[in-house]
C-alpha cells in the first residue's frame, strides 16, 4: 500500500515537472521570437527621430503583456517573473563591460573629474533631496506600513539613472562630450545608488550622529576605490597572461574565451566581496581595450568587438522587453487598485521629485565645474546643461530591481504599501523612458544643431555590427593626440591639470605599462598567417 502511495506521488511529481518544463520551453520560444521582432523593428526604425530600440522593445513588451493578459483572462501578463538576480548577474554585466570597452578613453578621462562630481556628489544631492521630500510628503499620506528607512530607500531607488537607455538616445560620434559626461555619470551614478541602497539596509535612522555619517562616507569611498582597483587589476592580469602566453598562436578561440571569462570574473568577484560590480566591470572594460585587445591576434580583435557588442545589444533588448512585459503584472496592480487615485498621485509626486532632484545638482555642479575651466570651449554651456539634465531623467531596470529587492519577496508582495511603491516605480520608469527617451533626440537637435556637434579631433566609431570594426588596427587608441607642451612650472600644472596629467600618464604608460602589459605597438602574429613577416603576400 505504501509503495503504491509513493508511486502515485512520484507520478504526480513527474507530471508536474513535465508541465513545468513545457511551460519553460514555451516561454523561452516566445521571448526569443519577441527578441527577433525587436531587432527587425529596430532596423526598420533606424532613421526614426522619435523612437529607438529600447523604446521599441518596451512597447513590444507592453503589447505582449496585454495579449497574454487577455488570453489568460486576467490571471497573468508575463512569461517570466522579474528577478533582480537575473538582472544584476546576467543582463547588466555585458552592457556595462561593452560600454567601457567601446568608450572613447581620451574624452572620458578628459572629463573624469566632472563625471565623478556629477556621478558621486550629484547622486548624493539627489538622494537627500528625494529622501527628505518623500519623508515630508509620504508620511502624511498613510501609505501602508512604510517607515523612514523605506523613504530613504526610495531616495536611493529614484536617484539611479538609466545608463542603458542613455546609450540609445545619445550618439558617441555626434555628441562625444555629452555622451562621455552623461554616460560616465550614469555608470558612477548606478554604482553609487546601489552602494547607497545596500548601505541603507543596515542603517538605523534612529541612531544618526557625526560618527555614523563619517563611517558611511568612508565606507562609500572604500567601495569606490576598491571596485575601481579590482577592475583595473583584472584587466591588467588578462593583458599580462595573454601577452606572456600568446595563446593565439594555437587557438584564437581560447583568447576570446579568456577575455570574456576574466571580464565576467571581475564582476562576480566584486559581488562576492560586496563591492560595486558595475564600477569594476566598467574599468575592466576600459583597461582591456587599452592593453588586452592589442595583445590578441587580428582575427580575435574582430571577434571580440563583434561578440561584446552583440552580447550587450541582446542584453539591452532583452532587458527592456522584460521590463515592458512585467509592468502589467496583475498581482501587484490588484493590491494597489483599492486606491487608484493615491497610486497616481504618488507616481506623479515621485516623477516631480526626480525632476527636482536632478536639477538640484546638474545646474549648481555645472556652475562649479565651469569655474575651473579657463576657456569657453571647455565650459558646459547652458544648452548642454539642459540636455544633461533631461537625458538623465530616465529611470530604468536598476530602479525596478532595487524596488523589487526592497518591497517584494521573490518578486511577490501582499502588502498594500509595498504594492503601491512597486506599481508607482513601474509607472515612473515607463513614463520617463517613453516620454523623456522619445523627446531626447529632438531636444538635442533643437538645442545643439548638427553643425556644432561634431568633433573633428575624434574618429568615428562603429554605430552597428554592420560597420567595419577594424578600419584602424589600433581602435580607440588611434585618437589623434592633442599637442601637449611640457609644463615648465607648477603654475602650468595648476592652469592646465588635464593636459599635464595626460602628458605624464603617456610617459609612464610608454615607459613601464606597455612594455609589461602590451598594448599599442605590440602586434602578435600567428606563424604562417598574413601578419607573419616571413610570409610574402603576392
From TrEMBL:
**Can you say what this protein is called?**
Sodium/hydrogen exchanger
Subcellular location per the Swiss-Prot or TrEMBL entry: Membrane
List the keywords (alphabetical). Answer: Antiport, Ion transport, Membrane, Potassium, Potassium transport, Sodium, Sodium transport, Transmembrane, Transmembrane helix, Transport
Q: Which residues form the Cation/H+ exchanger transmembrane domain?
A: 32-444
Top-rank lineage group of the source organism: Eukaryota
* Gene Ontology CC annotation, any one: plasma membrane
Q: What is the annotated signal peptide range for this record?
A: none
- Keyword Kinase on this protein? no
Please list the coiled coil stretches: none
Q: Which gene encodes it?
A: LOC123424815
Q: Which organism is it from?
A: Hordeum vulgare subsp. vulgare
Q: Which reaction does it catalyse?
A: Na(+)(in) + H(+)(out) = Na(+)(out) + H(+)(in); K(+)(in) + H(+)(out) = K(+)(out) + H(+)(in)
